[in-house]
Amino acid sequence: MTTCDDCRLPTEAKQAHDGDETRTLCKPCATLVDSDRSIYVSPLEHDDLELILAWRSNPKVYRHFRLQDGPLDWDEHVAWFESRGPDRHDFVIHYDGRRVGVVSIDGENEVGIYLGDFSAHSHGVATMALNWLCNRFNERTPLTAEIHEQNGASKQLFTRCGFQQESIDNEWLQYVYDP
Ligand SMILES: CC(C)(COP(=O)(O)OP(=O)(O)OC[C@H]1O[C@@H](n2cnc3c(N)ncnc32)[C@H](O)[C@@H]1OP(=O)(O)O)[C@@H](O)C(=O)NCCC(=O)NCCS
């Protein structure tokens, strides 16, 4: 068993990718790079925490998060990072040489995504990153997402990636990916 050079998850399928260098990529990461060479994911690390604190403290990002209604506190943010369980995975989305957002799956197979760098919006970056997550964690389907009814961009994104709305909990729509 080897490890993918991008997502750093274990992979059996070794795939040499022809680029500037030869790298070992899992199939979903190879597909992502093939779809757009300027996009890849890496596991969230301690050095990313300051940037994602800033992103997640922007009301334009968190306004549709169910479990957050204000800017984050640094100590709580670090405590959250260090207390994550083994089945939760957070990945930084890289686009055009910079970090632009995060895509995640938690221990209950709920998916989340945001682009903190607004200059990356509407380029298909979130679509490619969410498709990547669905491919990479295909063995954990059905995947779910909880989307606020007024979050039009997110509803479009998840629908585009194959999620279907299954139920409603007040103003929260429950989306499911079960290919
Ligand atoms: C939800 C969110 C990640 C969606 O980002 P986004 O920029 O709309 O998504 P994409 O980058 O995939 O862009 C999609 C748009 O790019 C276009 N696009 C351009 N190139 C594309 C490509 N190669 N592939 C797919 N779409 C492409 C699509 O047509 C689409 O346009 P549309 O919005 O007019 O339909 C973003 O709005 C966000 O971060 N919101 C705040 C956080 C949040 O609410 N997260 C979700 C919580 S459930």
Topology:
Elements: E1 2-3, E2 10-11, E3 16-18, E4 22-24, H1 27-35, E5 39-43, H2 49-56, H3 59-62, H4 74-82, E6 89-95, E7 98-105, E8 111-115, H5 125-136, E9 143-148, H6 152-160, E10 164-169, E11 172-177
Antiparallel strand pairs: 1-2, 3-4, 5-6, 6-7, 7-8, 9-11, 10-11
Helix pairs in contact: 1-5
The protein binds coenzyme A (COA).
Number of beta-strand segments: 11
Euclidean distance between termini CA atoms: 27 Å
The CATH architecture can be given as 3-Layer(aba) Sandwich
Which small-molecule ligands are present, each listed once?
coenzyme A
Strand content: 25-35%
Low confidence ranges? none
CATH topology, by name, is: Aminopeptidase
Helix content: 25-40%
Radius of gyration, rounded?
16 Å
Q: Biggest β-sheet: count, sense, barrel?
A: 4 strands, antiparallel
Write a concise keyword list for the protein shown above.
6 helices, Aminopeptidase, three-stranded antiparallel beta sheet, alpha+beta, single chain, four-stranded antiparallel beta sheet, 179 residues, binds coenzyme A
Structure description:
It is built from six helices and eleven strands. By secondary structure, it is an alpha+beta fold. Bound molecules: coenzyme A.
